Amino acid sequence: MPLPEKIGSDRELEDLLSEPTDEDVATVARLEPDILILGAGGKMGPSLARRVRRAAERAGNGSRVLAVSRFTSREARDSLEADGIPTLACDFTSAPAISGLPRFPNVMFLAGRKFGTTDRTDITWTTNTVVPARVAEHFNDARMVVFSTGNVYPLVPADGPAPTEQDPPMPVGEYAQSCLGRERVVEFVSREAGLRALMFRLNYAVDLRYGTLVDVARKVYAGEPIDLTVGYFNAIWQGDANSYALRSLELCESPPQVLNVTGPERISVREAAQWFGTFFKREPRFVNQEGPVALLSDSSRCRALLGEPGVSQERLRQWVAHWVAAGGASLNKPTHFEAADGRF
Question: What 8-state DSSP symbol labels residue 4?
């Protein structure tokens, strides 16, 4: 499928995010049929579910795809069902609800409490540790891709090497600590009960409605100040992250593998803002200077195993610029990539 110069609507965006690659289809064809997506109502869930569904249809092996979530938004559930994806509502904090889930051989576990969850840290810890433990125990004979985050790594020198999967986690703040907790409880079940798993350490996915590049572009367009304290970041097109996640099912092992998932570039906040400023014909406003540290990941292993991202950073920022200029990112939720104090 040729890539467009720009993306003009939510429907076009969803179609592009959901379009499986040949490698996606081949993966589904090799897997034992049936794939369960837990947390399908969140940011990445709907487009991932659609991609898996399309890949299964093209693989022609009869694989079922079931999307499970709390589905606080009826619209999200209706949209998935309209695309032929069966859904199931589930309160993941309920142990009986988890024990009632159908046991599929392939599970993609996206559910979790995300950035900015400082008001009820007890809920953050429950969602990110207790729930994964119960899920892992229920699906202990499955393959499971467990979505995690590069936030489990420490802040590193901005001009030094980024952490690889071999580097020890050193999470800063309760959100990041709870994400490492998720990994550890799944690892325990994997080692004790044989669950084949992979920790999918993602940072940061961009789908034009949200993401690091969108945060920078929106601030330039709106004339808002851009904080340079954390002066560098990583980013990856969400469609590429979806593809990597699906294909990671074949990499699941016991004990679990770890995979850093992001783009290959170390992106400068200042340079990105200046590029968007040129596109929008607006001068970026900066505050503070680049600090000594940043939250970065080295995705060399992911790219060696699964190939380079299909969407380059150059094309991605072109898409972001057109989208923001058309007013498509006015309601985006910030990623807080510039936070260096561990609150998020």
Answer: P
Coil vs helix vs strand at 340: coil
Q: What is the CA radius of gyration of the chain?
A: 19
Measure the CA–CA gap between 31 and 64, rounded to whole angstroms.
12
With a CB cutoff of 8 Å and minimum separation 6, the contacts of 240 are 309, 310, 311
Among residues 64, 50, 59, which one has the least CA distance to residue 19? 50
For residue 83, the one-letter residue type is D
Beta bridge partners of 253: 197
What is the Cα–Cα distance from 167 to 163, expressed in whole angstroms? 6
Distance of CA 140 to the CA centre of its chain: 23
The model carries a pTM of: 0.94
Of 216, 235, 211, 237, give the one whose Cα is nearest residue 227: 216
Find tokens 């590049």 and name the residue. 213
Say how many Å lie between the first and final Cα of the chain, rounded: 37
From CA 12, how far away is CA 5, in angstroms rounded?
12
CA distances 335 to 115, 332, 338, 339, Å, are 7, 9, 8, 9
* Residues 226, 256 contacting (CB under 8 angstroms): no
CA distances in angstroms from 5 to 178, 207, 259, listed in the order given: 39, 15, 31
Greatest Cα-to-Cα distance within the chain, rounded to the nearest angstrom: 58
- Chain segment 84-132, per-residue pLDDT in tens: 999 999 999 999 999 999 999 999 999 998 765 567 899 999 999 999 9
